Amino acid sequence: MTESAKTESLHSPPPVMRPAKKTGIVGYGAYVPRYRLPGKEISRVWTEGNTPPTVPEKSVPGLDEDTVTMAIEAARNALARADIPPSEIGAVWVGSESHPYAVKPSSTIVGEAIGAAPNLLAADWEFACKAGSEAMQAAVGMVGSGMIRYALAVGMDTAQGRPGDALEYTAGAGGAAYLIGPAEDALATIEASYSFVTDTPDFWRRDRARYPSHGQRFTGEPAYFRHVTGAGRALLEGTGTTAKDYRFAVFHQPNPKFPQRAAELLGFSKDQIQAGLLCPQIGNTYAGSALIGLSAVLDRAEPGDRIFVVSFGSGAGSDAFQIVATDKLPERRTRAPRTADYVARRKEIDYGVYARYRGKLST
Amino acid sequence: MEIARHWRLRRQRYALEGEQCGHCSRYIFPPRDICPHCGQEAGPVRSMSGKGEVYSFTVVHEPPTGYEAQAPYAVAIVKLEEGPLVTAQLTDVDAADIQIGMPVEMVTRKLRTDGAEGLIQYGYKFRPLLAAA
Hints:
The complex is a heterodimer of chains A (363) and B (133).
Chain A: H1 3-9, E1 23-31, E2 35-38, H2 39-47, E3 57-60, H3 67-82, E4 89-95, H4 106-113, E5 121-125, H5 131-144, E6 150-158, E7 173-182, E8 188-200, E9 203-204, E10 213-214, H6 220-239, E11 248-251, H7 257-266, H8 270-274, H9 279-282, H10 289-298, E12 306-310, E13 315-325, H11 329-332, H12 339-344, E14 347-348, H13 351-357
Chain B: H1 3-8, H2 10-15, E1 17-20, E2 27-28, E3 45-47, E4 51-60, E5 73-80, E6 85-90, E7 103-113, E8 120-128
C-alpha cells in the first residue's frame, strides 16, 4: 500500500454533493476562436518536422480576443438558450488561467457586457484547468441553497505554450459558459457532484512568468489519472451508477490519449466519449476543456440521456458531475450557435502569424 | 487614455445601448438628448440587436496611435437592422472577402490597449454572421 493510499484509507469517501434544492443547467454556450495552427507547423519550426504532433491542429485567438471577449460571447449564447432577463443572474464567475488582468476581475466586464450588473456577485477563479468546473460547483451551491436564482459559471482560456515546448502543440483557446438555475427550468439537471483535491505539483506558472512549467511525466499517473479516477469513482459509487448507466462521458482533455485512458479505467467505451472529445480539433482549452466537451454533448443529447463529466486542474484536483438532459433541451439548444459551428469555422495560419497573434514577437 | 470616458460609454460599447424615440418610435444610436428624426426629447434606452449589414467599408493600413497592434484592419459603416448607421471595425474576416451588403453581427472585442500596464478597452466590432456547420 502506498503512503497516500494508507492515509486515504483512514477516511471513507464522503457522500456525493447534492444541494438542498435541486439545480440544473438552464443555458449553455460555447466559444472557439477562428484561427487554427496545424501541429505540423510547430514541428516544422522546432524539430525540422521530426516530432509527430500531439493533435492535428489547435485553436488560436485573434489579435482582438482574450478570455474576457471569449467569455462574453459564450455567456451571451448561454443567456440566449436560457431566455431569462440578465438582471436575474446573481453571480458571474469566470474561471481561467489567462485572465487579461492580474488585478481587475474579468467577471465584472463579462457581467456588465451581458447586462447582469450591478446587483450580483462577481469574481475570477483560478485552479489551472478546473477553475471553470470549480465555479460550476459553487454555482450549484449558491443556487441550490436558494441564495440566488441564477449563477453564471464560465471556463475559458487562451492557453500559453512556451515556444518549442511539448505543450505548445496543444495549448489552445476556447471554452464554455453555464447558467445554473432551478432544476424545474433546466435543460439538463445536475443530479450530483464530487470534488477530489490534493497538493500535487504537476504544472504551475509563477507570478509574472509568461509561460507555465510542468513536471513532464509527473503530469500523468500522480496528477491527471489519480484525480480524474478519484473523483470519477467516488461519483459512480456515491450515486450507485456504473459506466453503463451513461450515454456520454466527458473528461478534461489535455491530449487525446489521457481522456481515452481515463474512460477505460472507469469502464467507459470510446463511443461514450466521442461526442465530447474536441481536443484533436481545437487542442487543450485548459479551463474550457471539459466544459466545452460538455457543450458539444449537450448539442446532441436527447431527453433522459445521462452524462458523466470529470474535469482536471493541475495543482491538482478534479470535479465530477452527473447530469441528465431534460425535455427542454432539444428546443432550447437551437437558440444559439452549436459548438460544432465554432469548431467548423476555421482559418489556418502558419507559425509566423501565430507568433504575432500570441505576442511571441516583440518590437 | 480617457478612463472616465470609456467608463461612461461602457453600455454603448458593450451592448449597443441606444434609444427608441418615445415620440416617433425610430431608433437612435448613440443615445442623444434630442431625437435627430423628429426633434423631440430622445429616449427611452433601448439596446440594438447587433444584427446589420455592411453599408460601406475601407481597410486601414496606416493606423492612428493606439491601434497599431491590430493593423491592417477593416473599418465599416454598418447599417443596423433597427436603422442607425454605426462606424466600427470588422473582425474575423479577410479584407478580400468583405462586400457591401454583407450581413454582420456585433461582437465584443479588444478595441485598444494602453501600453503593457494600462487599461484594456473593450467594445463593439462586427463580424460576418456565424455560419451553421
